[in-house]
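[User]
If only I could read backbone structure tokens as easily as an amino acid sequence. I have put the entry right below:
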Amino acid sequence: MAGDTPDRRGGERRGGAGRRETTERGSAAGRQRTGGRAGAGGTGASARSRSDGGEGRAADEPSLRGTMSEAKRYTPRGRSVRDASVDAGGRGDPFRPALEVIQGGRSEQPLRAGRRVEQAPRGGRRTEQAARGGGRTEQAPRTEPGTRGGRRTAPVERPEGEEAPRQRRTAPARKAQPPRKNPRRAPVRKKQSRVTVPRLKRRPGLPKLAEPRRRLRLATVLALVMFAAIGVRLVQLQLTDASAYAAEGLKDRLVRVVLPASRGSILDRNGKIMVHSVETRYVAVDPMAVKDPEALADKLFTILDKYGVPRSDLVRKMTPHKASDGKTNVRFEYLVHQIEPADGDRIAALHVGALKVDRDERREIPGYDLASNIIGYTSKPDLNGQMGIEKQYDSVLRGVDGLHVYEHGEGELDKPLPYYSYEELKPARPGSSVELTIDQDLQFSVQSALAERMGPLGADFATAIVLDAHTMEVMAMASYPSFASADPGSTDPNLLKDQCTATVFDPGSIHKVIVMGAALQEGIINPGTTVTVNSKVKKGGTTYTDHPPQKDGTQMTIPGILALSSNVGTIAVADQLGKDKLYEYQRKFGLGQRTGVGLPNESPGQLLPPNEWTGSSPGSIPIGNGVATTALQMAAVYGTIANDGLYVQPTLVKKIIAPDGTVTKPPAQQTRRVLDPQVAQELRVMLEGVTTLDDATGKQAAITGYRIAGKTGTSKLPQNGGYADGDVVSFIGMAPAEAPRYVIAVNAHVPGGAGGSVAAPAFKEMMTLTLSSFGVTPTGTAPPKLTIYP
């Protein structure tokens, strides 16, 4: 019979009566579980039972195809619940084999024929549905509202003799929801359960499966990052760094040509040139651009031979070579400096691209060695001041170099670009000229006289200084031996210094005027004072005598003590003055400090403070031993006496003349009062006895027709903690004595001699030249009558 035909999925095909019976049982059971719901609610439960359980229909069952309820029976995949039941009953999912292959094995829950796991609807739990049981499904028991964990469910009532379907333990169901109270709601379709497929572990040794989507995302990110970086860099180049790169590009096309500033001149007090710069040329070469150094050297040697440039040096410099670091190619090498412009033009006419001929200059000294100790010299070829005025006023003489910056082309167009190219021109500003207080003619006379007298005596050094007594301007200042400022390399470096300001010596007896001037100023002595002089005096174990010695108890006048240069008499006056006062007047007269005359390397000398005096110091210091001074310092002492007791700082520079004619005077000279004018006049009268009294030490300094006041001195030259052989002889005097115009100081280190016999005659010659050169008339008054003994 049709109702007894077994189903292929394991169920039984029931007839119409069977279906009706099942329907009625299901309806009764549903009404009982839902609390006696009737009508549409029971119908909906019966429909859900039919859709979940029974697949077969009787022939007399009305067809529902095409209705809304039929449409709701289709699953989201496009298959109806019936199709899903058929697949689970035996035919199976047509995609199941492929799915198992991809997943690498069996599914987590193998499907058995006629049985599948269904996902319980909301509020229920999963149940195992058997197709053989007539298509009947069992709804999940309801939970009592208001209860949590371990909820009780209502028992399911079934007809007698019918067994409850065996349930399969599944995952915990979702939280049960109370059923909606809307009795008219449509039947709820059960969700189709998904089969959980476990993730299999990759077997060791097997390659890792590719993940194209992950690779694609990584590639996309990298591409975006790259394009973003490129974009940022483009923005940076176009907006922020554009000007910097443009400037760098322009920098490669610019040529910087230094326009040398002409060095200023050095003039004498009358504006005569003592040193000036002369325009010359220099020749340079690019060794990397020379093709045949031997042939080019032959051409240049015919022109440069007279400048003492060896041909071998030309070949060596023009041959390509490396710099001192051994890596960089030398592209610029000087061949010769300071050649005549005409010779430079001859070399430029060769039209050799590797050669460069440009402006240069050299210092030219018309007097050759005239005032070389004052002028000094410069280095070659950069003309940096190395000594004297050239060094002290180097920044003033040098000026400011100009600069010509222009844009040029490359290769054959290596020349300034016209029109709208970049160009900057800063003209050179020549250096200023320095006008000295030196009189060039007097300097020549004094320098010549000093050399003629000291040369035959074998002097190691000698100095001569001429000062204007009122302004303390240095009219002449000579050193022996001299050197050529134009060629200082041929002179012993020890002789290049200025002996007048850099060499110190014990002043000796010329220091005695400081003792007498301080004693007069302090009122200890006066012009009529007599002093008891013995044959000798002992101080701290050292005995001091006179030459010739006096008898014990001899009374001597102050002019007599100065005229005979008595050591014992001077020490007696110094004892009354005291060491503190002596040191005070030494400082006032300018000892122990630089004069600031305007020359570098000036020595301050050495002055011993009273607290450092030894036992013999009260005897040695008053007579000028144990004191180190320069010739200019001692000349300034006598200049103070000649200037009525007013110390005025000596100076060498009169003014500075700018290129445009602007005149700038140096800072004002320092001045200070040392002696009262009357005291200074009295001291000058006393000093006249040195050249007028019988047996006086300075009689050889006397000049006919002029009153001369001065003092002789003989001392030693300190050297290496002791004294050098020979004597330092001195004479410093002024004329006319009644109204001094000039002060002349002569000092010399000779193998032997005395100030009166060596320095005094030189003073006489120089003072005579000075007085006659400047038109100083002879003295109209007779010299004072002085005596040695009262």
Observations:
- The chain has three domains: 2-133, 256-432, 440-484+506-773.
- The radius of gyration is 63 Å.
